Description:
Elements: E1 17-23, E2 30-41, E3 46-51, E4 61-65, E5 69-71, E6 90-94, E7 100-108, E8 121-125, E9 136-139, E10 144-146
Amino acid sequence: LKGGGGGAAGRCQPGDQVAACVSSAETDELEWIMGTVARWVSHSNCYEVRDEEAGEGDLQSHMLPAERVILLPKSAHSRDNHAVLQPGAEVLAVYPGTTTFYKATIIAAARRHKTGEYGDYLLEFEDDGDVGGLPQRPAAFRHVVPYPEGF
């Protein structure tokens, strides 16, 4: 959502799942986390985004400008007006077993099943390797977005 939340037409709505660029509590560096839009604050042109990892009693929220919020696909049936990302593309994707996004490269595109839903992408995450090279890991269709410019 250009100027309104990263990549698809329109503005993110309350309840939408997003990739949100926040300052890490431990290192003060920027990191991408999975969050849910709580509201749009028009007077400051920011989204209030709740951290998906925070527990029920620990609702951690962040006020973020639109360029630090990327709308995730709403389902595995569509890319919300985006083409399926192709091998070689740089993306942000949720690392398996976490709610944090990391830079990755697509090795195999998500394929459409007979149900109409897309399966997983096969990715190589940056800095995930060892002496043997980078392991290839699956990532859910809904948790992969084009890598944002300027990050």
